[in-house]
Design brief:
The complex is a heterodimer of chains A (136) and B (136). Helices cover 74% and strands 3% of the residues of chain A. In chain A, 26% of the residues are buried. Chain A is mainly α and 136 residues long. In chain A, helix 2 packs antiparallel against helix 6. Chain A is built from six helices and one strand; from the N terminus they run H-E-H-H-H-H-H. With 136 residues, chain B is an alpha+beta fold. Helix content of chain B is 18%, strand content 32%. In chain B, strands 1, 2, 3, 4, 5, 6, 7 and 8 form an eight-stranded antiparallel sheet that branches. In chain B, a hairpin with a 5-residue loop joins strand 7 and strand 8. Classes of the chains: A mainly alpha (136), B alpha+beta (136). Chains A and B meet through helix 1 and strand 1 of A and helix 1, strand 1, strand 4 and strand 7 of B.
Chain lengths: 136, 136
């Protein structure tokens, strides 16, 4: 045992990466965008003015806003931490695309707009496709 | 087999400890343990490496080096992708990359490194037993 102790490395060298190592996945963002769209659909389908309906309305609005915010957060992390300059060569309009996506998420927070929600899902899907295209 | 490994590495260890005494002027590290996965599959967390801390010149591209990371100051292990001579680098500079490109923090994050940041060259893996051998 004394031998192994003598042999032990004296230092730790880190082959390090963003922690956890390289685990980025736009799936969360996409799921959140789809949740926003589903909430808009439910809100638009609500009828009546009973307490139960109003309660559901408030809950759906809350979930919609939370998930629109989640889209922003998930996309921002991948954008700032995962994408590197070499990716920009293949995707020169990445910044514009992300910027528009984030604005779209903001628009979905503010409004109940089925078209905007569909746009958000499409833009997040495109972002996801771009992400996976860099993994090939 | 294990005993052979222990014996052989004990001798290696003593040789290196002896040389450490002899070369008092040069402070190691001579042995290092790898943490984290950005050099996978060439290096895995827990690998024990022998280092050559002599030098002050970047070894040739493809070599695995231990560096003092700019900013954080931690000891990091990466691979030399290019060094001086190549047109975009200063004579004493080197461009370092992790083998697992996705999340690796390397020259894409902190740019080219001056030879002052070079700590050692990793040249041999002496543990775990099944993975002993020269590094490439």
């Amino acid at each position: 045992m004394r031998l192994t102790r003598q042999l032990r490395p004296t230092t730790v060298v880190r082959a390090h990466c963003d922690v956890p190592c390289g685990i980025y996945d736009p799936a969360e963002a996409l799921l959140a965008a789809k949740t926003v769209a589903r909430m808009v659909e439910i809100i638009n389908g609500l009828e009546g003015n009973e307490t139960a309906t109003r309660n559901k309305f408030v809950r759906c609005v809350t979930v919609k806003e939370q998930h629109a915010e989640k889209v922003k957060k998930e996309v921002q992390v991948i954008w700032s931490d995962y994408f590197k300059p070499e990716h920009l060569e293949a995707i020169p309009d990445l910044h514009t695309k992300v910027w528009n996506l984030l604005k779209l998420a903001g628009k979905n927070k503010q409004n109940v707009d089925a078209a905007a929600a569909a746009d958000l899902v499409a833009a997040t899907q495109e972002f996801s496709d771009l992400f996976w295209s860099t993994k090939k | 087999m294990l005993r052979l490994f222990l014996g052989a590495s004990a001798i290696l260890g003593w040789v290196f400890d002896a040389s450490l005494v002899v070369r008092r002027a040069r402070r190691g590290p001579w042995r290092a343990e790898v943490a984290e996965g950005s050099m996978a599959p060439a290096l895995l967390p827990g690998d024990w490496l022998l280092l050559d801390p002599t030098g002050g010149h970047w070894p040739r591209p493809g070599s695995i080096v231990v560096i003092r990371e700019p900013g954080s100051g931690i000891l990091a292990i990466k691979r030399v992708a290019a060094r001086g001579k190549s047109p975009e680098l200063e004579p004493r500079e080197s461009w370092l990359l992790g083998d697992a490109p996705a999340g690796s923090i390397d020259s894409r994050a902190y740019g080219p490194l001056d030879a002052d940041a070079l700590v050692a060259r990793a040249w041999f893996r002496y543990g775990p037993p099944g993975r002993i051998g020269r590094l490439r």
